Amino acid sequence: MRNRLKVLRAERNWSQQDLAERLGVSRQSVNAIETGKYDPSLPLAFRIARLFEAPIEAIFEAE
Fold this sequence. Notes:
- There is one protein chain.
- This protein is mostly helical.
- Helix content is 59%, strand content 6%.
- It has 5 helices and 2 strands, in the order E-H-H-H-H-H-E.
- It has helices spanning 5-11, 16-23, 27-34, 42-51, 56-59, and strands at residues 2-3, 60-61.
- A two-stranded antiparallel ribbon has the order 1-2.
- The radius of gyration is 10 Å and the shape is globular.
């Protein structure tokens, strides 16, 4: 699954640690999602979408 998480995070000048704290996950989890090594759970995907005020489909895309 591809995602725009790194771009959205960079637009806000957030570090991976900043985003992790806002989502309640580890920095390693954010890194794994950004690099495509881990697909977030549905509840986490919804938290990400709410945080960025965007639909899930605007952040995550099936390959």
